[in-house]
TrEMBL record:
One of its GO terms (molecular function) is ATP binding. Residues 18-72 form the DNA2/NAM7 helicase helicase domain. This is DNA2/NAM7 helicase-like C-terminal domain-containing protein. Residues 79-292 form the DNA2/NAM7 helicase-like C-terminal domain. PANTHER family: DNA2/NAM7 HELICASE FAMILY, HELICASE SENATAXIN ISOFORM X1-RELATED. InterPro entries: DNA2/NAM7-like (IPR045055), DNA2/NAM7-like_C (IPR041679), DNA2/NAM7_AAA_11 (IPR041677), P-loop_NTPase (IPR027417), SF1_C_Upf1 (IPR047187). Keywords: ATP-binding, Helicase, Hydrolase, Nucleotide-binding. It holds the Pfam family AAA_11. It comes from the Eukaryota. It comes from Ostreococcus lucimarinus (strain CCE9901). Gene3D superfamilies: P-loop containing nucleotide triphosphate hydrolases. One of its GO terms (cellular component) is chromosome.
Length: 315
């Protein structure tokens, strides 16, 4: 199989001077990973190096984040429609990988039912007996939890000019959740990775504001529970032993709580694919921190909340 290399410096100059080329012959097989996140022009680039009778294998998940397209006019023109989705919609054979090896079975239940028609199964290494964490013995600290936190939402707290949101009540509660996990890990001498994630950049900063003082006060917590902060988009493709999701959306600061108050749009959280990414990062635990009264206005969140209540994991 040929290798892609850079054009030698003594070769004749071309317009695309840094363009790679095939030193011997095109590839027999081209594999494109994360294909559902690539816009079509990007996905077409590697296809120029395949033999006429070669094989293209595209690996992706159309139920998770689509290509990032900032321009709204481009979005309306379906620029965010990936080649992966187009080929699938045109009837090109697809194969669903049903066995998952990351999540505790309790974590995978809702995503499987909602996004994958109930097809996902937990494989070896991700069964109940494989995904037992020390903090699971604490009350309301199981593999999958929804914590109903009634807070208020603040826009542009850090005065960056960005249309981003934060929620101090959720950030404070998330720091409490992190401490429970960290203390448990320390007691059992078991290092873990904790992801504290949210849809909003301002909330990432707010989460740091509450968690970092805990770590300064007791540096051992960071040693036993390595923490990563990030937006949902930033952590796609990553996994953590425990994930704490701060949803942020609530009544804006200053709004009176009314039966049908204004300004309760849930923004990014309407995107089911973004929700799917958030829910499927955790190995041992996924804890959702949000205000159910506002979130349930969107159908997917209403289903999630009712599912949590039915399973007695709504607190």
């Amino acid at each position: 199989m040929a290798q892609l290399v850079k054009k030698p410096s003594n070769a004749a100059p071309r317009a695309a001077d840094s363009r790679p080329y095939c030193s011997v012959q095109p590839f027999d097989v081209v594999i494109i990973d994360e294909a559902s996140q690539a816009v079509e022009p990007a996905a077409l680039i590697p296809l120029q190096w395949i033999k006429p009778d070669g094989v293209i294998i595209m690996v992706g998940d159309s139920q998770q984040l689509a290509p990032t397209v900032i321009s709204r006019s481009a979005q309306r023109a379906y620029y965010g429609y990936s080649l992966f989705e187009r080929l699938s919609d045109c009837g090109v054979p697809t194969f669903t990988l049903r066995d998952q090896y990351r999540m505790h079975p309790d974590i995978v239940k809702f995503p499987s039912e909602r996004f994958y028609r109930g097809l996902l199964r937990s494989g070896a290494g991700a069964l109940y007996e494989d995904r037992v964490a020390p903090w699971h013995s604490f009350s309301n600290c199981g593999p999958y939890q929804f914590f109903n936190v009634k807070g208020q939402m603040n826009q542009d707290r850090y005065e960056t000019g960005a249309r981003s949101f934060s929620n101090s009540a959720e950030a404070e509660f998330a720091s409490y959740c992190y401490k429970k996990i960290a203390v448990s890990a320390q007691l059992h001498k078991s290092e873990v990775k904790v992801g504290i994630i949210t849809p909003y950049l301002d909330q990432v900063r707010r989460l740091r504001d509450f968690v970092e003082p805990l770590l300064k006060k007791d540096g051992a917590l960071r040693t036993w529970a390595h923490v990563t902060y990030g937006t949902v988009d930033q952590v796609q493709g990553q996994e953590f032993d425990a994930v704490i999701i701060s949803c942020v959306r609530a009544y804006p600061e200053g709004d009176k709580v009314a039966p049908d108050p204004p300004n309760t749009d849930i923004g990014f959280l309407r995107d089911e694919r973004r929700l799917n990414v958030a829910l499927t990062r955790g190995r041992y635990s996924t804890w959702i921190v949000g205000y159910a009264e506002v979130l349930k206005r969107e159908a997917v969140w209403l289903d999630l909340i009712e599912n949590a209540k039915t399973r007695n994991v709504f607190v």
